[in-house]
Design brief:
The chain is mostly helical. It is built from five helices and two strands; from the N terminus they run H-H-H-H-H-E-E. The protein has helices at 2-22, 34-42, 49-53, 64-74, 87-103; strands at residues 148-152, 157-161. Strand 1 (148-152) and strand 2 (157-161) form a beta hairpin. The structure holds zinc ion (ZN). Zinc ion (ZN) binds at residues 140, 142-143, 145, 162, 164-165.
Length: 172
């Protein structure tokens, strides 16, 4: 009997451990292991940065809206494979993700503020809260180029980007 109970607990523990291991570090976690996130990104080197950044097994907490906004702020083309980006590019994307998520949560409750809504531009104008998300076909707020959008991934989420502010890396 005792061994049966012990076995059940250990199976649960193994399962719990497996689930925890499968989630990436929490973007709002303290302390935050940026190096671990970068390693998990690089393990998916062949995949586009836009898909990797939203994979909760790489980093937990990133949503589809912030994904487009963070890549704009980091100046990264969404469809560039992770392997073609430098460590500095990936570290910058992770740092901006943390900054943006932290700036958009209400205190300790860590929920998005409904009053403010999502905001990444720091503009006080309610019509200018976001850089690129849902702005396909409209001019880039920074350079005036036409914002592009494309459905990506198995669930066809929309990615928005500025082709001028987010050029693909130049091949050496
Ligand atoms: Zn632009």
């Amino acid at each position: 009997m005792r061994s049966a109970v012990a076995e059940l607990l250990s199976t649960r523990e193994v399962e719990r451990h497996r689930q925890l291991q499968s989630l990436g570090p929490d973007l709002l976690g303290e302390p935050f292991d940026r190096g671990e996130v970068v390693r998990r990104m690089q393990a998916r080197g062949g995949d586009p940065i836009a898909e990797v950044l939203i994979d909760q097994r790489v980093v937990a907490g990133m949503g589809n809206v912030f994904k487009s906004e963070v890549l704009f702020l980091a100046g990264l083309d969404p469809f560039t494979p992770v392997a073609a980006l430098t460590d500095a590019d990936l570290e910058r994307a992770v740092d901006i993700s943390r900054e943006q998520l932290a700036a958009n949560v209400m205190g300790r409750s860590q929920t998005l503020s409904p009053a403010l809504g999502r905001r990444t531009t720091r503009s006080l104008d309610p019509n200018e809260k976001l850089w690129v998300y849902s702005r396909g076909g409209r001019p880039c707020r920074r350079c005036g180029a036409v914002i592009q959008s494309r459905k990506t991934g198995p669930d066809a989420r929309l990615t928005y980007w500025c082709p001028t502010c987010q050029p693909p890396p130049v091949r050496a």
